[in-house]
Automatic annotation (TrEMBL):
The gene is VTI1B. The chain crosses the membrane at residues 202-221. Residues 131-193 form the T-SNARE coiled-coil homology domain. Belongs to the VTI1 family. It is a single-pass type IV membrane protein. The keyword Transmembrane applies. It holds the Pfam family V-SNARE_C. One of its GO terms (biological process) is vesicle fusion with Golgi apparatus. Keywords: Coiled coil, Membrane, Protein transport, Transmembrane, Transmembrane helix, Transport. GO terms for molecular function: SNAP receptor activity; SNARE binding. This is t-SNARE coiled-coil homology domain-containing protein. It is found in: Membrane. The keyword Lyase does not apply. One of its GO terms (cellular component) is SNARE complex.
């Protein structure tokens, strides 16, 4: 249950209902003053049960949404049972005659008020059910909107992260391009150095050959030519 007050009212109603449900059979078997007394007692207890149900409906209005469906179902069942008992009580004394009419005269206004109140309470219960359905729909819409907002935020974060990753990739690509240019320059420098090295080797070889030729000429002139 949703509250201690609702449980108390529930117990009060069950006690009244247990007393009321025995009266139609007793009225059918009784006669005269005893039947009049049973009719008066039934009307009094029926009115008390109606008041208890009204109190339960007041509790229903302020109950948490998670409890309202079960509470509303119980109230509809109780009103149906109470209406059935009232019909059974009327059917239990079909030939009660003038004495029954007298009792009905004394309590007819109260009974009609109870019937009218029962109808109003039933309409109120249906209205509460509709309100509960609207509240549930509103909560569902709010949850959907919250989920949509969270999804939008996640999407925004992902887009920002992708933007950052793109910037990182652009920087990496630029670094790779710079590295490629540096490698190209390095290859050009290495080729130039290689050409210089070959040129230097050729020059060195020519110089060595020239020195050898000069040395041979000197030796020839000094030792062999006389």
């Amino acid at each position: 249950m949703s509250s201690e007050e609702f449980e108390k009212l529930h117990e009060m109603y069950r006690s009244l209902y247990e007393e009321l449900k025995l009266m139609p059979d007793k009225a059918q078997k009784s006669h005269g003053e005893e039947r009049k007394r049973l009719v008066r007692t039934f009307d009094e207890r029926h009115g008390e049960a109606e008041e208890v149900l009204q109190g339960m409906e007041e509790e229903l209005r302020i109950a948490p949404l998670s409890y309202r469906n079960s509470m509303s179902t119980k109230l509809r069942m109780y009103r149906r049972d109470l209406g059935k008992l009232q019909r059974d009580m009327k059917n239990s004394a079909p030939g009660f005659g003038s004495s029954y009419n007298t009792v009905q005269g004394n309590h007819g206004i109260y009974s009609s008020q109870n019937q009218h109140s029962t109808h109003l309470q039933s309409q109120r219960a249906l209205l509460l059910e509709g309100t509960d359905a609207l509240n549930n729909a509103s909560q569902s819409i709010e949850r959907s909107q919250r989920i949509a907002a969270e999804t939008e935020q996640i999407g925004t974060d992902i887009i920002e992260e992708l933007g950052e990753q793109r910037e990182q990739l652009d920087r990496t690509r630029n670094r790779l391009a710079n590295t490629g240019e540096n490698l190209s320059r390095s290859r050009k420098i290495l080729r130039a150095m290689s050409r210089r090295l070959v040129t230097n080797k050729l020059l060195l070889g020519i110089i060595i050959l020239m020195e050898l030729a000069i040395l041979g000429a000197v030796i020839y002139l000094k030792f062999f030519r006389k």
